[in-house]
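Self-study notes.
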Amino acid sequence: MSAAPSASHHSDLAAIAARITRPVVLVGLMGVGKTTVGRKLAGLLKRDFVDADEAIVAAAQRSIPEIFETYGEAYFRDGERRVIARLIEEGHGVIATGGGAFVDPQTRAAVLEKGIAVWIDCDIDTLVERTSRRATRPLLKQGDPRTILTRLAAERAPFYGQAHIRVVSETGPHADTARAIIEAIDKWL
């Protein structure tokens, strides 16, 4: 094929991006690739990207495992709720949220009202493999990761299911997931 399709592809992207007037907020379990996909997605849409977890760490001046250990999950969720509300108000292009964020009723309501919620879903095998690469996930320190991820997936699916859009992340490149999200947003709009 000639270079023409890519040129039309870029104008398609620009046209879709122009129609997106709210932050795209990525939700889903830890390990689905919200941060990596979010960066790719923001690049494709020519928007800024912000990771809510990184913003929480910056605000608290502590790592997330430290916040969990020192103050507990409820305290963490409270800070997370405030940070995500602020990020939405600031009008960032793409916001990645922590796995539990969308379970919080106030956070979920704010995202659904003021953002475009995209649930990145993924099979448990892929999640176990991806989350095993980093030891920075407090909820996985409480037992067998597969058991915990399976339980979290079941518990959180009803919440994630309220997102405007659901995209399944395969084992392929994150850029593919980012493109699938853009196509899904285009249809949804």
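Second protein, same conventions, sequence then structure:
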Amino acid sequence: MARVKLRSSDRPVDERSGEGAPNPVWFKPLMFGFMLLGLAWVIVFYVSQGAWPIPSLESWNILIGFGIAFIGFLMTTRWR
């Protein structure tokens, strides 16, 4: 198995899996975008008293907002 040192850290990195490689440029904006979109979804639902974003879903809008934000929080576990 090929092992290489990444930068000056002592942690070996497997070249084939890409483990330890830095994230692409789009990763961090997308991660924070999901978190902010989920927060905005929930805030809009509460401020509009259920009239927005999708009135027919009623209280399920809260779950959708938290679900979108949760995707962003899950992405933080892969952030390097």
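Instructor comment on the second fold: The longest strand covers residues 3-5.
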